[in-house]
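S2.1 Query sequence (serine O-acetyltransferase)
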Amino acid sequence: MAHMDIQTSATVRLPVHYEQESFKLVRNLLTAALLECCSPQEYSLISDTDMLEMVADQCHDDLLAFAAKDPAAGFDPVFIARTYTSYAAVLHYRLAHQIAQTCGNLAAYERSLAAIVSRRGKMLSGAEIHCHARIGARFIIDHGVGTVIGETSVIGDDCYILGGVTLGARGISQNPCGARHPRIGDRVQIGAFSSVLGPVHVGNDAFIGPGCIISKDVPARAKVHVKTALQMVLEQ
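Output structure tokens follow.
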């Protein structure tokens, strides 16, 4: 089954100086996000840890994976990092998630800091990724405006999601506190404006086409498409 080169595109090796340039850019973007969202004292405390370097490594892997799959950017990671708002959503998620994971252990971090970083990512990108969602390596959101990933969502490695996708709960209000969002396997692709609702499982290598509503488990390597599309042309 073909997967838009997902299985063969882990990274395209770039010249060493260009990889260094793109990594430095990712590090600068993370620094800018932090400086806008936290106090100088909080930034100093974070800078004294290895958090930024660890998040930069994760974000750079996301960036190289995106560049390997995106001819519209000329396969250029620097262009994507500087101009793609959907990449900004993932970068801010990575930073917010790491802060959320750490703030319980370091009393100096305000509990709200992860949410403030998430809010900045949403404002820049139009995509909302909860800081407590768990997302694997080399994650790509493409054309991400309107994408929502809920708090208890779990996403595997090498997944590719388009704009307007919702990984949400089944209810509207008064949802339970426990797991209520989907679990997505590795190398899953989800088309634009699809919704995956509730604690369902989507297996590895599944393909969900645009406009689908998923409320039951999807087995590994399955393809899901909408079969009700009907075009009507009324001539005057």
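Residues 16-37 form the longest helix (22 residues). The chain has one domain: 16-224.
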